[in-house]
Amino acid sequence: MKFVAFERALQGTGASRRLRITGRTPGIVYGGTGQPQLIELDHNALWHALKKETFHSTILDMEFNATSSQVLLRDVQMHPFKQLILHADFQRVEANTRLHMKVPLHYGGEEESQAVKLDHCLVNHVVTELDISCLPADLPEFIKVDLGGLKKGASLHLKDVALPKGVIAVTRGKENPVLVSVVTPPAEASEAAAADAPPAAGAAGAAPAAAKAAPAPKTGAPAAKAAPAGKAPAAKAPAAKK
What we know:
The protein is of the alpha+beta class.
């Protein structure tokens, strides 16, 4: 990938601020046998270039003062909340000097794996880029990783991936880190946890109690007393004869 840089005469906070107002971004090129060189770049062109993955992980051709040189993007400083690039750092590339770079990992084929297609597992990409060391001629744009062989309960480690020729993975602390993990579906995991869990105390105590039969009703119970009948009205005495 190619980009154009221009010589920057002034440096300092005030000069960089005035440069950004004009639509330029200050930068620097260092490394190799030459001295650090102050440069400036077109902000909009740099903004669109940064959206491309290749601009971050491949050797770039920088055109500067009618000459072309190979560099690597090393650092970009962004404004905290504005869409503004504050500064860009580039490193010169020498053919006989090994590079230390982060290269993206491109995963593919997981939809056809047994873990996803048959067991309906979830695939978690633990690592998305890999630290590598290699010569400039061997630097890959990305590393392709085939996940077609994933199985339920298994994980993909660094040693399971075939690196390009001349490329060495740089690991810190772990010799064989996990790159991809296979996760059991949530519904299946909850069912397995429920099957392994001991019965609850309330359910255990309720079973013996339910086994006992309810007592049968007693026979020969006295009949209910009849309600007392109401008193009959008294008979009227016969009227006296005159």
